Amino acid sequence: MRSTKTIAGLIVGSVVLATLAFSNTFAQGPARAKATNAITSAAPAKAPIVRVSGMDFSFDAPDVIPAGLTEFRFVNKGPSLHHMQILKLEGGKTIDDLRAALANPGPPPAWVKEVGGPNAPAPGLESNTTLMLEPGNYALICFVDIGGPPHFMKGMVRALRVAPSADASVPMPKVDVTATLFDYGFKLSSPIQAGTRTIRVLNGGAQHHEIELVRLPPGVSVSDFVKWLGKMEGPPPGMPLGGVSGLDVGGSQYFTADFAPGNYALICFLPDAKDGKPHFTHGMIQQIP
Prior knowledge:
Layout: H1 7-18, E1 39-40, E2 49-55, E3 58-60, E4 64-66, E5 68-76, E6 85-89, H2 95-102, E7 112-114, E8 126-133, E9 136-141, E10 157-163, E11 177-182, E12 185-188, E13 195-203, E14 209-216, H3 222-231, E15 239-247, E16 252-259, E17 263-267, E18 285-288
Parallel strand pairs: 2-5, 4-10, 11-13
Antiparallel strand pairs: 1-2, 2-3, 5-8, 6-7, 6-9, 9-10, 11-12, 13-16, 14-15, 14-17, 17-18
């Protein structure tokens, strides 16, 4: 699977997703939280919170965080669309090794592992994910490209060191629904009810996948969204709310979102390992009430 996936190919899905940033609607959403360069302890028996902000074109984030269950809260300070893909750099590799790999076309090295992260919220909004982090070297990166060089080429890639921690473990989040990703679709363990819900995302497919949550306006169906994706003319018929960025095979992560009554779309924009086309073209797009 790795031998057919190129670093450039990781950008393809983000190119499609990035066009969502051109909607004036997205610019109106208020920020839900102010990103800082600090780690804040959550309530007892919950994962510590790491706040990160993305802007044109950098991340504001801590340099070092402790290992263990961690909640990332990502604020998109735009005005462009951004996401926060977390890459684990295995084998002692560093951010300099990653930058060298990004500068050369071809398949990504085997030591680069996609471990998720908050997917793209509209400018001004916040998304989140909770995941278990082992000690080691990581990178925060934005693969979005809006008609020009991808954002990591403009400086939107940052090292993150996860240090060993002696703190007692905390329990995993309480899950409302499990979303299993496969080639090519989404399987929900139960319908998502209105309200604040925590979704466990599990990649059960044979290649990498992501989940992007998009709220559809009244009267707009996922078929309308698919038609728009075919031409991408005019404002997109939906608002990105976040989700989970690319997960390697077997990866698992959690995200929480407010589901107001209405229709939503679940989408995977990542490129296929065989033909390089976005996974939604293979049917990996689903409407949920």
